[in-house]
């Protein structure tokens, strides 16, 4: 789901709840809709504070029917996300010096208790997400030092998170945003962890998705397509579902595509998939979150503004976005 938290104390959290009620009432007859994902890539989570992220999950849980799953993105990259927890340890004065060097405690004259590393911050966020109502945590790959994020580092990271998480963990590979594909060998190893239940793969490499399905077939592990643009192809190689940005506006159609695939109506599924490709590209790779939010406004939901540095669409971009939907019969 798109993030609606904007201007602290403003109307957007209420609009978030209105969107959920609209989604669930509109799609009530679509049994394929398993639930909602918040704080994923479309949730603008890198631009939200820790407290805002938790408040979004809290509000969504309050509005969401109990029979619908709530997956919450809990991945953390920055040490600062947990810094407030260590406020009592900070040196006093107008300009405290923070020693964040990779050195033993005491190596810096102004040293204080260091905030947790990204793995520990992710653990803490995952636990907090569970406490406010998330049914499972979707954990994106840490990526800032992507040159060192090899299989061993990522296996260690996810194992630590899964060991300490009170809710199931879903791996999240989104190379368009992170510059990093979660390696297949790491996925296979992690699939054996009892608290790691699946992966959302947004890379679009269908051969890779098929290989992950094949190599994890003996585990209780679900492979989910990360985009509606390759949903049919993913089902064809064994994926069991999808987490799709396009479902924010064309949710019933995405669920229909799933139903056609699962019932073997491949010709009809192909026709529908073709009509979803351009709109999906428009709200993901081409225009991203600004495009998705604008489209939500058109479809009667509340999209709202984006957080800086994301910018609103220009008039020409908005016209091109509309064309991608109208030319496929959706507007």
TrEMBL record:
GO BP terms: glyoxylate catabolic process
CDD domains: DHDPS-like (cd00408)
MF terms (GO), sorted A to Z: (R,S)-4-hydroxy-2-oxoglutarate aldolase activity; 4-hydroxy-tetrahydrodipicolinate synthase activity
Superkingdom in the source lineage: Eukaryota
Name of this chain's protein: 4-hydroxy-2-oxoglutarate aldolase, mitochondrial
GO cellular component terms listed in the entry, alphabetical order: mitochondrion
Enzyme Commission number(s) of this protein: 4.1.3.16
Binding site for pyruvate: 243
Active site: 172 (proton donor/acceptor), 200 (schiff-base intermediate with substrate)
Keyword match Lyase: yes
Protein family (similarity comment): Belongs to the DapA family.
């Amino acid at each position: 789901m798109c993030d609606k938290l904007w201007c602290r104390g403003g109307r957007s959290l209420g609009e978030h709840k209105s969107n959920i009620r609209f989604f669930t009432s509109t799609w009530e007859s679509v049994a394929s809709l398993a639930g909602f994902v918040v704080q994923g890539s479309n949730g603008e989570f890198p631009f939200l504070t820790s407290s805002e992220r938790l408040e979004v999950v809290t509000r969504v849980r309050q509005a969401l029917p109990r029979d619908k799953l709530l997956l919450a993105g809990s991945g953390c990259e920055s040490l600062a996300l947990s810094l407030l927890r260590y406020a009592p340890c900070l040196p006093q004065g107008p300009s405290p010096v923070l020693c964040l060097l990779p050195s033993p405690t005491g190596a810096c004259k102004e040293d204080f208790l260091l905030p947790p590393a990204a793995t520990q911050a992710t653990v803490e966020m995952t636990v907090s997400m569970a406490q406010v109502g998330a049914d499972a945590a979707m954990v994106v790959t840490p990526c800032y030092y992507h040159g060192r994020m090899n299989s061993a580092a990522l296996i260690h990271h996810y194992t630590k998170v899964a060991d300490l998480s009170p809710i199931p963990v879903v791996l999240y590979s989104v190379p368009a945003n992170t510059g990093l594909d979660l390696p297949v060998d790491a996925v296979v190893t992690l699939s054996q962890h009892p608290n790691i239940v699946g992966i959302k793969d947004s890379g679009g490499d269908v051969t890779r998705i098929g290989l992950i399905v094949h190599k994890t077939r003996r585990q209780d592990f679900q492979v989910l397509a990360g985009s509606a643009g390759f949903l049919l192809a993913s089902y064809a190689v064994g994926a069991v579902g999808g987490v799709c940005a396009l479902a924010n506006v064309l949710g019933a159609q995405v669920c229909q595509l799933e139903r056609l695939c699962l019932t073997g109506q491949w010709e009809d599924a192909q026709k529908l998939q073709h009509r979803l490709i351009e709109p999906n590209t428009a709200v993901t790779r081409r225009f991203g979150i600004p495009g998705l939010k604008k489209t939500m406004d058109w479809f009667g939901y509340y999209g709202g503004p984006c957080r800086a540095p994301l910018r609103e669409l220009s008039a020409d971009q908005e016209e091109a976005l509309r064309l991608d939907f109208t030319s496929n019969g959706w507007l």
